[in-house]
Amino acid sequence: MEKGFKVDGVKIVLSVVAMLILLCVVILKYDDIIKKSTDVEEKMDALQFKEDYEKLNGEVNPNNDKNYPKVEIDENNPVKYSTADEIVEVLEKGTGIIYLGYPKCPWCRNAVPVLLQAASDAEVDNIYYIDMYDERDSYTVKEDGTLVKSKNGTEGYQKLLKALDGILDEYYVTDLDGQEIDTNEKRIYVPLVVFVKDGEIIGSHADTVESQKDPYVLLNDEQREELYEIYDKYIHEMLNDLCDERC
Fold first, then answer.
1. Measured between alpha carbons, how far is 177 from 5 in angstroms, rounded to an integer?
2. So what's the architecture of 2-132+190-239 in CATH?
3. How far apart are CA 181 and CA 168, in angstroms?
């Protein structure tokens, strides 16, 4: 009986070891699957972003008969299509770059290549992005001067307005006489790039550079460098890798 008990004990130990080994293999396989899934998702986002912006190259804006500024987007860009809830989570406790804009915005088409270059140079992994084209409230002014809301913003947009309140400008609408009317709301004007560290906004930048008056004329080298330096400064503050005089 004693000998049989010992044999049975060895079998139990071996079975447990085999089960532990199998469990480890399953866990490793699961982690590998999750990583590959994440990699595929990020790759799809990058390619989607490239397609969304580049497909307007050579197209004409029907509102003013001007050609959309041409952009070239690297297929390995770090853009991640995000929801308002994901953006709010970053703003509350995360670290990263948030970009709000849309492909048909000529200012955005000037800003995006510069932002991507600055992010790539700093080896930033993610830029959280929302296409704002159909997200925002819109107001119009009737001929009698009455202000009316012509479009309601999405629920996500309202969350973004609240989370970004401290850095947003007031929303004014111009009437037929060129007078500005206050909507008593704030607005996310695009392009807007927000830099967040540990749930704190350490910087933000809207539009491109002051010297650019016509967004359908691409930034010149000097303007690109000026915008690059703005983004680069905030990125390195976010990464906390700026040097002082003693570095």
1. 98
2. 3-Layer(aba) Sandwich (3.40)
3. 17
Give burial (CB, 10 Å; 0-12/13-18/19+) of 193: buried
- Tens digit of pLDDT for each residue in 71-99? 999 999 999 999 999 999 999 999 999 99
Q: Residue ranges per domain, the chain?
A: 2-132+190-239
Cα–Cα distance, 178 to 144 (Å, whole number): 14
84 neighbors 157 (Cβ within 8 angstroms): yes
The one-character DSSP state at 83 is: -
Strand 127-131 and strand 96-101: the pairing is parallel
Q: Is the CA virtual torsion 29, 32, 38, 44 positive or negative?
A: negative
pLDDT at residue 32, as a whole number: 53
